From TrEMBL:
HAMAP family noted in UniProt: GcvP
Cofactor(s) listed: pyridoxal 5'-phosphate
UniProt-recorded name of the protein: Glycine dehydrogenase (decarboxylating)
Domain (Glycine dehydrogenase C-terminal): residue spans on this chain: 782-903
The keyword NADP is annotated on this UniProt entry: no
Entry's EC annotation: 1.4.4.2
Amino acid sequence: MTANRIPLSQLERGIPFEQRHIGPDAEAQAKMLAQVGYGSLDELTAAAVPDVIRTADALNLPEARTEAEVLAELRSLADRNQVLSSMIGLGYYGTFTPPVILRNVMENPAWYTAYTPYQPEISQGRLEALLNFQTVVADLTGLPTSGASLLDEGTAAAEAMSLARRVGKVKGGVFLIDADALPQTIAVIETRAEPIGVEVVVADLSEGIPAEIAERGVFGVLLQYPGASGAVREIKPVIDQAHELGAIVTVCADLLALTLLVSPGELGADIAVGTTQRFGVPMGFGGPHAGYMAVQAKHARSLPGRLVGVSVDADGNKAYRLALQTREQHIRREKATSNICTAQVLLAVMAGMYAVYHGPDGLRTIARRTHRYAALLAAGLTAGGVEVVHGAYFDTVTARVPGRAAEVVAAAREGGVNLYQADADLVSIACDETTLRADIEAVWAAFGVTADIEALDASTEDTLPEGLLRSDAYLTHPVFHQHRSETAMLRYLRKLADKDYALDRGMIPLGSCTMKLNATTEMEPVTWPEFGQLHPFAPAEQAEGYLTLITELEERLCEVTGYDKVSIQPNAGSQGELAGLLAVRAYHRANGDEQRTICLIPSSAHGTNAASAVMAGMKVVVVKTADDGEVDADDLRAKIEQYRDELAVLMITYPSTHGVFEEHVADICAQVHEAGGQVYVDGANLNALVGLAKPGHFGGDVSHLNLHKTFCIPHGGGGPGVGPVGVRAHLAPYLPNHPLQPTAGPKTGVGPISAAPWGSAGILPISWSYVRLMGGDGLKRATQVAVLGANYIAKRLEPHYPVLYTGPGNLVAHECIIDLRPLSKATGVSVDDIAKRLIDYGFHAPTMSFPVAGTLMIEPTESEDLAEIDRFCDAMIAIRGEIERVAGGEWPVDDNPLANSPHTAAALGGEWNHPYSRDVAVFPGGVTAAEKYWPPVRRIDGAFGDRNLVCSCPPLDEYDA
């Protein structure tokens, strides 16, 4: 007999990537469908998704390709990028990522597939790494409290403006920026200031604050240190003058320079912001990078974003957690002053580990080498008759060549080096950790200068002012001194990773967060030098591959969503929201409807929605949520009528925040449009729509998308993220743009939302690859299996826990909410108890108490296979049985496996005085010793940490010699 013939064309393509990405195979899908009561995926989604929104046409996307084919296509795109030696500077620098950090953090799924550390007991590794980061920032800036990172330097500076306005004594007045600040930072601040009515004034502050500005009132001042031109100036007189005027002073500081220069804190600054990019994080054509903010102690509780603090666990052992957790600005909704809801954790970890690896001596050596090259560069230019503008600088030299700047920059480019043309007469040249002698010589040649670098080295002094040289100790904690060898560093990184729970261990069933597979093929190109080492302000012709990839991704996202134009500049979902709302605002104003400032938001909406609306200069009006979880139609109609002439936009999440497909969404959109408003469809739940429905077709005018949810960019422990904004054609003229890259957005745009023209471009190859690997049919099936998984869980758990909301056919969308409130009321077992007990079973908890207090929101995604989904369901059912034992009086309410969870290995030692056994504690149903995940700490006392706020590593004198 001969085997059945299979055509070569099928054999060549191998197993489709779709089957690698989607967890349940055909047999598993059949079992799940039987449990839910449907015969096929199409039958299920036809019942779940309302007819009125469903799209009839297949996605018009290129056919799916194999992993090998996609990598080859990406390689051809990468080869179209031209990576020259970058001496552009302006906040982006070449850096050398220690391979031990590159391999064991950036390329390690234990780090990049983790979620935000809201469950601190299983996040101790990354929390310790973030505490290291905060210590680096606090020590180098000379300010005692640093956050756990912000999105980039520009947005950090904008957050500083808002903080200064909030905590300062001057009410009204202007926000004053030194003209030597980074141009993109100035532009981002201006974008953020205008909608909230803040006047920004840019002025030369080298001789102090001009009297005419001081007379107007100044609530905040921002200085760059060193300046964008490279100048190192004595800024303390300006800081003192600003304080005399009652202003809050922010210093944008270069951390590498601060290893040699007096810190902003010592100079009197109230706030310091900046980027940690040059601490081992590739430029990546603009991001992602970890911005930072540090403040005086009195402002610690007003700090936007996240803050890691030290607390204790149930045994009194030191443990880390997010301090002041409910203080996160976006949770305050319409009262928020910031919409920050994410950080740049993976990049902050890399930057912190860069400091751990090098220690203070190593960082100083890198800084001295960088400055030395700048000094020699300037000396050669001066000797050759070229005017160097500043006598004191750290890494950046600005040269004046009247009328010849463009010629010099072009000549340098021919010699393999990119410089920055500040204007027709000025050229800036930035040195960094990767600068070589050949680069210096190429720059001299571009200026028409020849010099002997050895001879100059023997005769040239450093140029940093003696009075600004740093003399205090920093990074004194042992962690910055113990890991000099690669062996020690490798083991430290492994030790921290082993404490954590990430997707490489098991399911993270977080509703609204879409924790799905981040395939290795998608991740691999991110670290290729052709993508990683490109400066965001490099000439466009050097980035042909990147720009092609960006254009193709934007076009494919348009096809998926039904919108006409997408901008990928926003580097977080919150930034995408702001960009979308600013586009709506600009559209109304262009039409003469400046009175349209009302933003309607359902009470169940994500907290960022209301916060973003406030930041966009809008007034939030809350719409009630009906008992079935849908928008209250009667209340919505009443609010539309009440605010008809003032209505700017309705923000809704679809499927709803409650995890259901609302049947009347098209009617809701039509009502808003009839009243002259726009509809913003929050794209957080797009994983339930791709291939089935398009927001741009069922009534949406604008949406942000979360590439770190639906399109496979990993969460990285709480960042990076990308939040593109998609709009219909009438809003396209008002998308973000950028002052340094005209092709990054329309001339009529609202200004930059992020510091870099294309945001976090360095991780866009991930989403591009995902779409290319899956094709239109694969993306649709992914959505269908995500909906199947959520409904399967709902059906399995429904006999044990009530499912709070369902939609058509008694079905949920891609997530389900189980209601624990009746159980908690009857037994005293809290939602926290169940979440922590899941750790003993080897799981990360679902989303707790959002959008309804006392509930768990569960989202399996399409990536989890049936065995893992069943393991989770079995654990939840077993926990329900444990709750019954509490309810029946067998276990006391205050002494049972749930109340005492999670249980550590250390908890098993010594006496055991609990009414349940050690085995019940740590090996509950189905958990084996061989596969056990051991949490490093017991339940953490959050209140203790908030009362005793400690947010950096203790100083050396607190340790034994």
